[in-house]
TrEMBL record, chain A:
It comes from the Eukaryota. CDD domains: Hb-beta-like. It comes from Oncorhynchus tshawytscha. GO terms for biological process: hydrogen peroxide catabolic process. Signal peptide: none annotated. The keyword Transport applies. This is Globin domain-containing protein. One of its GO terms (cellular component) is blood microparticle. Residues 3-147 form the Globin domain.
Automatic annotation (TrEMBL), chain B:
InterPro entries: Globin, Globin-like_sf, Globin/Proto, Hemoglobin_a-typ, Hemoglobin_oxygen_transport. The keyword Metal-binding applies. CDD domains: Hb-alpha-like. The keyword Endoplasmic reticulum does not apply. Residues 2-143 form the Globin domain. This is Hemoglobin subunit alpha-2. GO terms for cellular component: blood microparticle; haptoglobin-hemoglobin complex; hemoglobin complex. GO terms for molecular function: haptoglobin binding; heme binding; metal ion binding; organic acid binding; oxygen binding; oxygen carrier activity; peroxidase activity. It comes from the Eukaryota. One of its GO terms (biological process) is hydrogen peroxide catabolic process. Belongs to the globin family.
Length: 147, 143
């Protein structure tokens, strides 16, 4: 059972409240595909990924980035039971999408960096700690149904 | 995974651009390391003051960032150029190499925070590779 302190809940809510999903989602996913190019293996049907510019201007990637962030919002709204909230998503990623769970960590590192860029010094060490704890719970829940 | 000639230029240019704030970057990165990854405090048990904004942490962050800049200057031969630092980390400090990765992450979070416009995905990938290669060079003498 994950235990959240009041400070952690407040930090995570505050971070999400400041997010424009249509901006951060695309930035996060495209950054992941550029910084960790092997993650492109899952996006064969997404069109032009030939270089950084193409990835950053790809509308399918942008749309998917927003989808991913909306998925994270589900975890935010169910912070006390992320494990079960994500059971279906975990099966989806394991059985259908066949994503190596290690990639979840790569995407969450990129999200942390994008949010740091957005928030600047407001992204304090304590905020970073709370947010990374949230992401590690999400990552763990997503990897749970793999077998 | 090695740095292309273009990536070396990207890394050198970027670190030159942010050099005026290198102390701030180092101090902030180390502060984050001990707050976000409290297990890293185990290496600093000999300091009286382990507060993130305290003297010892900030001072050491500056030292570490100095090492990063030394690595930038030796970018064409990291293993050779960082030999002494590797021996220090291997025989004296004995820092588990897994911590190099998490410190690199903290450094990049700080770079992103302070230089949001400049730390583009293209620069991010070059810096990420560079820091990974620095970590590898530092671990050279471990065994």
């Amino acid at each position: 059972m994950v235990v959240w302190t009041d400070e952690e809940r407040a930090a995570i809510s505050d971070i999400f409240s400041k997010l424009d999903y249509d901006d951060v989602g695309p930035k996060c996913l495209s950054r992941c595909l550029i910084v960790y190019p092997w993650t492109q293996r899952y996006f064969g049907a997404f069109g032009n990924l030939y270089n950084a510019e193409a990835i950053m201007n790809n509308p399918l990637i942008a749309k998917h980035g927003t989808t991913v962030l909306r998925g994270l919002e589900r975890a935010l709204k169910n912070m006390d039971d992320i494990k079960n909230t994500y059971a279906e998503l975990s099966i989806l990623h394991s059985e259908k999408l066949r994503v190596d769970p290690d990639n979840f960590k790569l995407l969450s590192d990129c999200l942390t960096i994008v949010i740091a860029a957005k928030m600047g010094t407001a992204f304090t060490p304590e905020y970073q700690a709370s947010f990374q704890k949230f992401l590690s719970v999400v990552v763990s829940a997503l990897g749970r149904q793999y077998h | 995974m090695s740095l292309s000639a273009k990536e070396k230029v990207i890394v050198k240019d970027f670190f030159a651009k942010v050099s005026s704030r290198s102390d701030e970057i180092g101090a902030e990165a180390l502060a984050r390391l001990i707050v976000v990854y409290p297990q890293t405090k185990s290496y600093f048990a000999h300091w009286k003051d382990l507060s993130p904004n305290g003297g010892p942490v900030r001072k050491h962050g500056i030292t570490v960032m100095g090492g990063v800049y030394e690595a930038v200057s030796k970018i064409d031969d990291l293993a050779g150029g960082l030999l002494t630092l590797s021996e220090l980390h291997a025989f004296v400090l004995r820092v588990d190499p897994v911590n190099f990765k998490i410190l690199s992450h903290c450094i990049m979070v700080v770079l992103s925070m302070l230089f949001a416009e400049e730390f583009t995905p293209q620069i991010h990938v070059a810096v990420d590779k560079f820091l990974a290669l620095v970590a590898l060079a530092l671990a050279e003498k471990y065994r």
